[in-house]
């Protein structure tokens, strides 16, 4: 029997990283680690991993983070319309993708 994993965060949700001091918006979700074997270190690879369009002092960047490293960001409950327009394309279903990546 296959175990199903339910992601804690959804596409378009604003999160912050517990240790790396960045916040951003979830743009993609993998049910488990999708990188090379052994690269997760002490982080369990059998949990959801998220691509987060993070916003830092130097601008935006894509981060790949384990679910256990992320938390809901109570300071930013939603994207402003200005931020959404600046960073994303949004399809007719409300799915967000960074302007540099196509929505799949």
From TrEMBL:
Keyword annotations from UniProtKB, A to Z: DNA-binding
Domain of life, per lineage: Bacteria
Pfam family, one: YccV-like
Domain Hemimethylated DNA-binding: 6-99
Keyword field contains Transferase: no
SMART domains: YccV-like
Signal peptide (from-to): none
Entry keyword DNA-binding: yes
MF (Gene Ontology): DNA binding
InterPro entries, per the entry: Hemimethylated_DNA-bd_dom (IPR011722), Hemimethylated_DNA-bd_sf (IPR036623)
NCBIfam families attached to this UniProt entry: yccV
Protein name: Heat shock protein HspQ
Organism expressing this protein natively: Brevundimonas denitrificans
Taxonomic lineage from the root: Bacteria, Pseudomonadati, Pseudomonadota, Alphaproteobacteria, Caulobacterales
């Amino acid at each position: 029997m296959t175990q199903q994993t339910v992601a804690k965060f959804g596409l378009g949700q604003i999160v912050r990283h517990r240790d790396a001091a960045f916040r951003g918006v979830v743009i993609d979700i993998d049910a488990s680690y999708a990188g090379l074997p052994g690269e997760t270190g002490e982080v369990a690879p059998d949990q959801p991993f998220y691509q987060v369009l993070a916003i830092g002092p130097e601008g935006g960047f894509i981060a790949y983070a384990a679910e256990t490293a992320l938390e809901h960001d109570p300071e930013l409950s939603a994207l402003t319309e200005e931020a959404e327009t600046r960073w994303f394309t949004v399809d007719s279903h409300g799915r967000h993708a960074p302007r540099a990546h196509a929505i799949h």
